[in-house]
Write a structure and sequence with these properties.
The chain is of the alpha/beta class and 312 residues long. The protein contains 11 helices and 13 strands. The strands form 3 sheets. Strands 5-4-3-9-10-13-11-12 form an 8-stranded mixed sheet, sandwiched between helices. β4, α6 and β5 form a beta-alpha-beta unit. α4 packs across α5. The radius of gyration is 19 Å and the shape is globular. The N and C termini lie far apart (51 Å).
């Protein structure tokens, strides 16, 4: 494809996005049929500052913002996240993918610092592009590593090809039965990393030390318990507020007995003083019943952070 054909395709994709009424279910088809490639204007939640993300007709997150519009990806969770990010100094995005939570945190609070963990080499490369494009390279530490219960080298199992950024890559054995390929990735515990930051300076990239833990997002495709086991000391010391994605055996949030059992197990790992609030994805409100895939684990000493949250 020559440059002019490329540019013409992008113009047609932009016009289709402007005139169309696409939904989340249309993103894959839009990537294949319209094929927009370039930077996308992103707004995490209504009223939040914007940032940019790059897509090569391959990023479902950027695809939402381009084809569906602002505040169209995990809107409720990102509304909660942005609110908490403005009240946080030290933020950790575990399972960052292409960086939407890390980028949204910096957009909401330019004074915070973020560690963004993404183990997939393909996706990590895009995370770097997005960080640098927004000028956040001095505030977000991108780590091509996973978090777990200890220091190890684990196989990350990919369900799709080398050109594909898939959100279901996992360390969990048996979850991807027939992987397209696997890659070995360093895995650390957060407790160990924070107490040995100078040993991992090249991995962390930023020269400044991280001096606390206020807010964490965990999206690790079934590896949540291992991540939490590796931050028990951090939880006891700082009582961070944590958003965790929890899915059932079919990567959905429909099997309520399975979900409730997993959430209770995670709550036990957080320890005394923590409670769980379920996030309604359409509104960002907190509910007693499961209304989405993301859940807020918050310590009693930090509940005041939600006192002025508009959907509380």
């Amino acid at each position: 494809m020559d440059y002019f054909a490329f540019a013409d395709r992008n113009l047609r994709a932009v016009e289709a996005a402007r005139l169309g009424r696409f939904t989340s279910e249309d993103i894959g088809d839009c990537h294949a049929r319209l094929g927009y490639r370039g930077f996308v204007h992103c707004v995490a939640a209504e009223g939040e500052p914007s940032f940019v993300m790059f897509t090569n007709a391959d990023d479902v997150v950027a695809g939402h913002y381009h084809y569906v519009g602002p505040a169209s990806f995990e809107t409720g969770t990102l509304k909660v996240w942005s609110h908490l990010a403005r009240r946080s100094s030290w933020i950790y995005d575990v399972g960052s993918f292409t960086g939407v939570f890390a980028l949204a945190a910096l957009a909401a609070n330019p004074n915070c610092r973020v560690m963004a963990f993404e183990p997939s080499f393909v996706t990590y490369s895009r995370l770097l592009v997005n960080i640098y494009a927004n000028g956040f390279d001095g505030q977000i530490a991108p780590l091509r590593a996973g978090l777990g219960s200890g220091e190890a080298e684990l196989e990350l199992r990919h369900s799709s090809g080398v050109y594909v950024m898939s959100s279901d890559e996992t360390f969990v054995q048996g979850k991807v039965v027939d992987p397209w390929f696997t890659e070995k990735v360093p895995v650390l515990s957060l407790d160990h990393l924070l107490s040995h930051q100078d040993d991992y300076r090249q991995l962390i990239v930023l020269a400044n030390r991280f001096e606390g833990v206020d807010l964490i997002k965990i999206d690790v495709e079934g590896f949540e318990a291992e991540v939490l086991k590796g931050m028990r000391g951090t939880i006891d010391r700082y009582h961070p507020t944590v958003i965790v994605e929890v899915l059932d055996n079919n990567n959905e949030f429909l099997d309520l007995p399975v979900l409730n059992a997993r959430i209770e197990d995670l709550l036990d790992l957080f320890g005394p003083g923590y409670r769980v609030l379920h996030i309604a994805e359409t509104s960002g409100a907190f509910t007693d019943e499961i209304k989405g895939r993301n859940h807020l684990f918050i310590h009693d000493s930090k509940v005041s952070l939600l006192s002025d949250y508009p959907a509380a």
